[in-house]
Amino acid sequence: MIFGVAWLVMMWFGLVMVALATAVVFIVRQKHDAGTDSGTTTHPPQSDARQQVLEKVQGMHAASEGLRGRARIEALRRYMDSMNDGLELVSDIRPTKEGQPNGEWVIAPGSDPNRRILYIHGGSWIAGSPKSHRAITDRLSRLAHACVFAVDYRLMPENRYLDGIVDCQQAYRWILDNGPDRKAAADFVVIAGDSAGGSHTLGLIAWTRDQNLPPPNAAIALSPSTELMLTSLSKRANLKTDVMLGPAVEKLARIPSPLLWWGTVFGIRILPTSPMASPLRGKLHSLPPTLIHVSESELLHENAQRYVAKAQQAGSPVEIKTWPDMVHVWHMFTPLLPEAEEAFENIGEFLARVEVLPDDSSSPS
User: Fold this and answer.
1) Residues 6+ apart with CB under 8 A from 167
2) Catalytic pick from 104, 298, 302, 339?
3) Which of 111, 195, 199, 234 is flagged as catalytic?
4) Which of 42, 199, 280, 354 has the fewest CB atoms within 10 Å, counting from its CB?
């Protein structure tokens, strides 16, 4: 059983890394084909971009080649953290101090310290970090004129799944009253996250409601996991069109359902049906304005739609925006991918609408 659980965790981590590599290849190929058809040249030159992609993919394989167990996990984590190397960031990056939640502030020029975004990174709960997602946090700080706190929550398998949730909860409580420079109440608060972090985002907004805490003004979930029922993913219509998650899920589908179920239970140490792991299974009334982005071709599309429909039926102002033929969390590839820029523009429009809501709507004060 222990071996089976370890294998399952490694499979899901491998899924993430293959997804990232596939996404980069897919995106650059699309841009290269578009440039060839129109006779135009993008910046940077396509030959350079394709070479960079090849080097990244080769580096991913080289990073973990011949390694097993913890050594493999650590190597892949280091590689994921390196994916933003060379990206030009306009924001100031400030690690938190001792006694504060682990993470970093991402602060673009002109950001208001009383406008705050809590960002929860993705990575299947076993990978990723504030560093690996700086392309997103830098962009969010710029468009919202807000200081982004990217929480460095504890990852599996060395920590429990619930440990990461507790870290996100503590980080939210903290940013309500603490900015990057001093203790001060927030004027505007957003919770955002992608993939696994999107799942934590949706779980966190329900938790703030149940704890009678000041709710965030808004929430944003990018390609979120809304239900951790692995057995159901293999039955999705998008299994063949999801170039990132499909191949790995097909392999998982070969595992007998009872073994997959109990492997998941032992891996995350809570039932997959718990709202903490599957926000779709929870109560979705009285949520703050929430925006969900998802690709129409990814496996998580159907469950995201189910989440939105259930939340709307419960009276919560939750909306969804979809893109065709995009890879999982395509937002990570800004500014290379035009659709990523479109997604951020949509986020900016959503936040602008939220800010003109009546004063008795969601507010952190």
Assistant:
1) 101, 102, 151, 152, 153, 154
2) 298
3) 195
4) 42
